[in-house]
Specification:
This protein has one domain. The longest helix has 19 residues. A two-stranded antiparallel ribbon has the order 1-2. By secondary structure, the chain is mainly α. The structure holds zinc ion (2 copies). The site of one zinc ion has 8 residues, from α2.
């Protein structure tokens, strides 16, 4: 199934996941677009769950957003791919409109 990243069900589901920053157990209720939408980041494999605090830190990082993720030892593109893959397998199993 083709996922649209602005699909409300997909966004709701991403928001239900834990923040992607290791050790942070806060729900990732502020999904972050790894590539800015204005820079062609329309692909659904572009959204990661992140909490409000880490989302703010990410955007405020003086060295740039990518350095924020490097500092936390994570690759946002891999996480975005995993998130999309998991959503696809759930929606394939349960049908469109994931129950979560
Ligand atoms: Zn963001
Ligand atoms: Zn967090």
């Amino acid at each position: 199934m083709r996922i649209e990243q602005d699909d409300p069900a997909f966004r709701r589901w991403v928001s239900s996941l834990d923040c992607c920053i290791p050790g942070c157990k806060t729900p990732g209720i502020h999904p972050h677009h790894v590539k800015l939408k204005s820079q062609g980041g329309k692909d659904p494999m572009n959204v990661i769950p992140i909490c409000w605090k880490h989302h703010t830190e990410c955007h405020d990082n003086k060295q740039g957003m990518i350095m924020f993720f490097i500092d936390h030892n994570i690759d946002p593109f891999i996480i975005a791919g995993d998130v999309t893959g998991l959503y696809e397998s759930i929606t394939d199993a349960f049908g469109y409109g994931c129950p979560l």
